[in-house]
Every structure is written in structure tokens, then in C-alpha cells.
Amino acid sequence: MKLADTPKDIRPHLLPAPNGKIVYRCLDCRKEYGIEQLLYTCPNCSQVLLLHDLAFQQLTERPAELWHRIFDYRKMLNIPALKGIYRFHEFIGPVIPLEAVVYLGEGHTPMIEANASLQELLGLRFFFKNDGQNPSASFKDRGMASALSYIHYLITQGLASNVLAVCASTGDTSAAAALYAAYLHPHIKSVVLLPHKKVTPQQLSQPLGSGAVVFEIPGVFDDCMKVVERLSEHYPVALLNSKNAWRILGQESYAYEICQDMEYDLQHKAAVVPVGNAGNLTAVMNGFLKFFQAGIISDLPKIIGVQSAHANPVYRYYRQTDVTQRRFVPVTVKPSVAQAAMIGNPVSMPRVIHLVDQYNLLAGEQRVFFVEVEEQAIMDWQLKANRNGHIACTHGGESLAGLAVAIHRGYVSTGDTAILDSTAHALKFIGFQQMYFEKQFPPEFEIRPDRALINTPLLVHPPGLNKVPAPGKPLRGADLEKFIRLVAEEIAERLNLKKQNR
Q1: Per-residue pLDDT of the chain (502 residues; tens, 9 = 90+)
Q2: How far apart are CA 234 and CA 226, in angstroms?
Q3: How far apart are CA 15 and CA 31, in angstroms?
Q4: E strands present in 131-274
Q5: How far apart are CA 416 and CA 122, in angstroms?
Q6: Strand, coil or helix: what is 417?
Q7: CATH class, 111-134+252-453 region
Q8: Which of 33, 218, 303, 486 has a CA positioned 20 to 30 A from the CA of residue 54?
Q9: Do the domains at 111-134+252-453 and 139-250 have one common CATH topology?
Q10: What are residue 6's phi and psi, to 5 degrees?
Q11: CA angle centred on 457, ends 456 and 463, rounded to 5°
Q12: What are the strands, taking DSSP E only, across 426-481?
């Protein structure tokens, strides 16, 4: 749709001008800092930061119906800067002019309703939100579009130049960071740190293909993160992990899109999110909170945070029901098929604690819950989902396993509608499916393949077939006819097909 074709009353609101007054705000000492330079922790107390709009009150002055129309008409416009996460410009990056926005196709990922069989199996209506259909095939693109758009803005303002962007990753972050940095080449160069042999080949190929400098180091993600934090503290580099508050801001778009796709009715809704480094969970909570505080939605949905038993520090923290006795203790992770969530010391944990309290307080009751799932359940539910027409990754399987646990515990009822986060494309983690089908899982994964879920190719080579085609050596004449007939008959026999009478 062209801007000139939109209704006259809504047209002045559709192209947002730079506005707002964004500051870094410390979660602990509450000190505020300007955004002229990138900050990751509070200079005063070293706590993590969130971005806060000091002019947020002006967003509450627009009625909900007007906001709904603004977002819905922006969705129809053929303006790249408004096609992705910056459709919600006033809530994500109000200080960033549209010409500084980096758009590579991120956001507006589809919500696909589970088929009747799968919904009947769980006993309620639910959707997968396929964030694997972002450009680098994971939800991380939302945060990178925000972080790199802001860095691009700093460059255009002469506040930054020759930026060296670094991140630690279990795979998806590095792919997204390298992709968006490559788009802004030569102004930005990308460096990623990966745990040696802890990233799938598909994920490793992505930053390499985007031209990033890739370092593999011993250990797990948490070790990579410690190195990256030291680099950001002592050297002039831009940190692109979720410790970067601009990353969190971009990932809030996930919550905004759910609101829009649900026509802004969040009553009896539940969002199920893998926890991992807790950045996405933080963003989802903050996104719903902002829309609720602005009056765009009238209900806060339930949120279910899911962790594998092999990497479960957040679940362990909230398992303690006595709030005064809660102590956060990092855990030593074990191998997990939910590889991107295999994090024992999530950097966003202080944000989680702060926002969970705020979320439940504004909701007037507990609306944020945490569940733990077994590795076996993650793989089994992923395969069940994909056998019913989805493209869920292992983290999508983790979400579905978490939903099953949440239903069992009564956190989610049959009257609710759930939206499950499938954070990446299934092909990124296809090796785990292959290990399942071939019964090749190492013992430490604690997964025993269910025979009913195993699917492998069947070789068809009927007895008596002496000549078969090969590349560059096709069959002809009687040999070809015999090949076709015997192979067809063998397949028909295996499928119990009866020959038609004609």
C-alpha cells in the first residue's frame, strides 16, 4: 500500500520522526546514563542495564484504537524501515531515524496454528511462532537489527567509526551478528567466539560465510562469554550479546507481533519461551509490559519460561517458593539438544528477577512461571511437532515439552491459547534428528530414541534386478522397462497397495 492511499486521519502518524528520550537505567542503583556511547553495565555498580524512555508517558496519551490502526496500516506499507521490527518504532527505537534502520527481512514471522491432532494431544489451542524464518534463521536477528541500527546511527552522527563488533555464541547469535555486520561493511567488522565442537556445522558455516573472524575456544558458552566481557571492558569493541540493552529492545518486537496477530486481545493467552541466556525472556516480558502500560493491550498474558534439566539455573531459582530464601546459583551445564539454551549463568538474570516481580505485580497475580523438561521430552516433542506439519527446532521442541509440563502443573488451562517460540529453523539442528534416527546419541544426552518416532530411508532394490541406472549410465529399452516394473511392484508390495482393475 502507498502512503497516499491510507486514510487521511491516520496518515500523519505512519512515518515516525525521531522522538523520545532514551537513557540507560541501572537495575540496581537506578542511575541513568546517556546513549551517546555503548554501555553494557553500570559504571557505578557494574549491574546490567535496561533502556528506558523518559518520554514514555506521551505514548500513553494515544488511545488504544489509534495505536492498533497505526501498527496495522504500517504493516501494509511498502517502506522497508517499517516492514520489520521498527513497525513498532515508538517502542523500540524512537530516537533512530528511519534512514538509519537496517532491515534485512527480520520480524513479522508467521504464527502457525497446530493441527487438530496435535492440539487434541495437548488438550488446548496453540500456535508455533516460527522465528526460524528470520534472515539468519533465528530470533537473534530481531536484537541484531536493533543493535546494528543503533550503531549505524552512531556512525552516521560521527559518534563511532571502524567498529569492531564481538560476541560469544552457541551458534545463532554469531550468525545474526556476522550477517548484520557484513551488511554494514566496511564500517563494521565482526568477531565471534564459539565453544570448540559445541556448535552445529550448519551454525558454524554461517558466520564464516558472512566473513566474520571466528575463534573457537575450549569450554562452553559461559567461558566464551567471560572472555568477551573482558574484551569489552578493556578494549574498544562493541559487545553484541544480550548484555547489550539494544539487543533486548529489538527482541521486544516478538511480543508486539503476538499482540498484533492476536488482534490485541491477550486475555487467556500464554507465551512459552525457552530461557537460555534469558535475553529473549526479558524482552518478551518487557514488550508485553510496555504495551500494557501504554493501554494497547488490556491483559498481560501468562509467560512460561522453559529450561532443560541439563541447563536449569533460572528454574532452580524460582523453584524456591520462599522469596526470602531465593539465591541465584550458576550451574555446570551438561550436553543438551537445546544447544543454544545450554547456558549455566545467564547474563540477563538480574533483568529476569526485576521484570518477573514487576510483571506479576501489574498483573495482580502470578503470571510468570518456570518449568523444567527432560532432554528426552525435548526431542520427542520436536519430532511429534514436525510430524504434524511444523518446522520446529529443538528449542521449539523444548517449548512444546514445557507447555505439556505447564498444563500438567495447572499453570496453563484448556481455556488458554498458547504461543510457542520456535527460536530457530529446524535445519540448524538437524544433526540431532539424525542422531535420534540412527540411535547415535552419546550417553550424556540421556536420550533413548522411541522406535515409533524413528524414520529412515528404505532402499528399494528388488531381487532379480541385475541392471540399474547410474549417473551417466542410463538404462534404455527392455532394461529400463524391467527396472521401472520391478521397483514399482516392490514399492506397492511394501505399501500393501492393491492393483487397480482397468
Answers
A1: 999 999 999 999 999 999 999 999 998 899 999 999 889 999 999 988 999 999 999 999 999 999 999 999 999 999 999 999 999 999 999 999 999 999 999 999 999 999 999 999 999 999 999 999 999 999 999 999 999 999 999 999 999 999 999 999 888 899 999 999 999 999 999 999 999 988 888 889 999 999 999 999 999 888 999 999 999 989 999 999 888 999 999 999 999 999 999 999 999 999 999 998 888 999 999 999 999 999 999 999 999 999 999 999 999 999 999 999 999 999 999 999 998 888 999 988 999 999 999 999 999 999 999 999 999 999 999 999 999 999 999 999 999 999 999 999 999 999 999 999 999 999 999 999 999 999 999 999 999 999 999 999 999 999 989 999 999 999 999 999 999 999 999 999 999 999 888 7
A2: 12
A3: 33
A4: 163-168, 188-195, 213-217, 238-239, 269-274
A5: 12
A6: strand
A7: alpha beta
A8: 303
A9: yes
A10: -80, 160
A11: 130
A12: none
Q: Does the domain made of 139-250 have the CATH classification 3.40.50.1100?
A: yes
Between CA 47 and CA 243 the distance in angstroms is 10
- Consecutive H or E run containing 233: helix 221-234
What's the Cα-to-Cα distance from 7 to each of 10, 17, 61, 69, 111, rounded to whole Å? 6, 19, 21, 10, 28
Taking the C-alpha atoms of residue 352 and residue 40, their distance in angstroms, rounded to an integer, is: 16
Grid cell 535475553 — which residue?
A: 279
Report yes or no: 287 and 256 within 8 Å, Cβ to Cβ.
Answer: yes
In this structure, what C-alpha cell is assigned to residue 259? 499482540
